Amino acid sequence: MKLVGMILSAIALVATVWPSVAFLGGSIEMETMKKIMLIATIAWFVITPFWMWKEKEAEENTSPAEPSDSAS
Amino acid sequence: MTNPTQSSGPPPVEIEPAVPFGESEATSEFERTPVPKSRLLGFRSFIGMYAGEHCAGTELMIGPLFVACGVSAFDLIVGLLLGNLLAVLSWIFLTAPIATRARLTLYYQLEKICGRKLVTIYNLANGIMFCFLAGAMITVSATAVGAWASAINPNWSFNLPENVEALKSLYYPTSVGWVVATSVVGLVIAIVAALGYQTVSRFANVAAPWMVLVFLTFGLVAFKQFLDLTGAEINSLGDLWQFAKTELWPGGDPLPGQTKFTIWHVTFFAWFANAAMHLGMADLSVFRFAKKSWYGVASAAGMYVGHFMAWIAASLLYSYRLKLDPTANILPGPLTFEAVGYAGLVCVIIAGWTTANPTIYRAGLAFQAIVPKWSRFRVTLLAGLVATVAGIFPAIAMKLLDFVALYGLLLVPMGAVVFVDFWCFKRMGLEPAYAEKSGTSFNWAAGFAWILTVIICLGLVKFTGLQIFFASLPGWFIAAILYVILSKLIQRPALAGGKS
After folding, report:
1. What is the mean pLDDT of chain B?
2. What is the structure's pLDDT at B2?
């Protein structure tokens, strides 16, 4: 489930930046770019907390004796 | 500037800067003890932290302000490359080596050197600066709220004037709508900060990667708009550079009320934008968790993402706006809305909010040291109210470059004190961590070194024409020399007395 969430978040991130690249290349219009960016933004903020916060909680629940190096 | 909320929790009192894994509630057991080996972090942790935290709401003011200061393409690009390199080197060679040896927070280390009372005064100065900095962030967010309101109803006036000719009016509120917008934004931030910091911190972690990319889109879109407006064609790097020199950052006179920026201004500004963190040693609290001192190089991720890419992208937004309207004002909300629509407004609001929130929290902590009987909720709310009032007056945001320079100047001398105390005192026959060893709560040598340095530097600015952007560098050396001389005067009689 976490993996699916991470993949969807990655797609949302790509969809955030791709429209501006396409706009720069002349492939899409400005208004289309703005709409895709807004949808990607909503997708990112809806999807990402589910897996990122759970991951964070799991980290915080680890024993203090364990190195929190897992984040690295 | 930085976005401190990428951390896992709030540090007690840090500067604008950030303290990530330091001093969070989860690691509060290390506030007064060295970080043990088992809790040290790997290099990638620092890369992620710095990359995320240096994309803050204030970047959206700083980039455009460079343009308002009449910066040219060469001065901007080379100045930023050089200044950010100097900042990274400062982290690597000044901050990280002490952090990985002492493994203490700045505040505990300062307490050992300066004594509790002097640290409290230092925290108060820090807290006041935090409030004004948070005020600038509230101003930035409020411009997005104003732009959002205008998008709903063009007759709603919740923003600052879009015309720079109304410059005088930029220093005080211009309409009831603006006061309402900033008050609402400020109060929400203050209440959230007072109620609890952790949720915003976690939200900021979610927002960070997205924000970095949205900043990038600002630059890409503005660049395309420039191309469309001028009809220029870019077929080589030479074309690109020519275009940058003639269209993107043509230089020239600064806008009214701004200082003309040369390469040296850009270099020193980029170097000292986070002076409080490296020269000022605030990031001792960060790098005490580093396995090796060379991890200081991770700061490059923040500098070249936030203080290079983001500043350049934000500057392009305003440069394009100026091309269309030479009297255009710097309003991050409308600038980003025109470029990328509602995603841009969300970015401005989140960038301002997630940065202002911990800043207010930290100001509250600083004030609590003065009035320990007040609850955390009460002091944080008070700090938030002060920041909100500051945010209503856009002068700080419009003079952010000067304010950031002043902020660095105020905190850098204490970094020099820590540096000299750690590396030089034993070799000079002086006692390091003098306050701890002598039991004093106010080390006059450190106190005078700090205050006299600030007075001397401000005097140089006032009477010799030295611009404030350059004052932190001599300030560091003045503080170091004063601290040594004053310590020799104070320590010898005291220690001799103690021995007899």
Report:
1. 87
2. 58
Residue of B nearest to A56 (CA): B202
Q: Do A17 and B206 touch (CB under 8 A)?
A: no
Nearest to A16 by CA among B81, B496, B357, B209: B209
Whether the predicted pLDDT of B344 surpasses 90: yes
Side chain identity at residue B129, one-letter code: M
Residue B96 has which token pair? 């990280």
For the cut 80, the answer to whether the pLDDT of residue B1 exceeds it is: no
Taking CB atoms and an 8 Å cutoff, what residues of chain A touch B340? 20, 33-34, 37
From the list B129, B112, B15, B123, the residue with the least C-alpha distance to B446 is: B112
| CB-based contacts of B388, cutoff 8 Å, min separation 6 | B135, B138, B182, B183, B185, B186, B187, B189, B190
In the DSSP assignment, the letter for residue A22 is H
ipTM of the complex: 0.84
Residues 6+ apart with CB under 8 A from B373: none
H helix or E strand, kind and range, residue A18: helix A2-24
Q: Do A68 and B346 touch (CB under 8 A)?
A: no
Residue A56 CA to its chain's centroid (Å): 15
Residue B309 CA to residue A29 CA, distance in Å, equals 24
For B112, the token pair is 């050992």
Burial of B282 (0-12, 13-18, 19+ CB in 10 A): buried
Those residues of chain A that have pLDDT short of 50 are 63-72
Q: How far is A33 from chain B (nearest CA, A)?
A: 7
Q: Which of residues 5-64 of A touch B (CB under 8 A)?
A: 12-13, 16-17, 19-21, 23-24, 30, 33-35, 37-38, 40-41, 44-45, 48-49, 52-53, 56, 60, 64
Instruction: Show the tokens assigned to B131.
Output: 């409030």
Asked if residues B101 and B352 have their Cβ atoms less than 8 Å apart, the reply is: no
Q: What is the mean pLDDT of residues B49-54?
A: 78
Q: How far is CA B38 from the centre of its chain?
A: 31
* Token pair of B423 as six digits: 């590396």
Pick B217's closest partner by Cβ from A20, A48, A52: A20
Find chain A residues with C-beta within 8 A of B45's C-beta: 69, 71-72
Q: pLDDT class for B174, splitting at 50, 70, 90?
A: confident
**pTM for the whole structure:** 0.88
Q: What is the mean pLDDT of residues B386-410?
A: 90
Q: Centre a 10 Å sphere on the Cβ of residue B74 and count the other Cβ atoms it contains.
A: 15
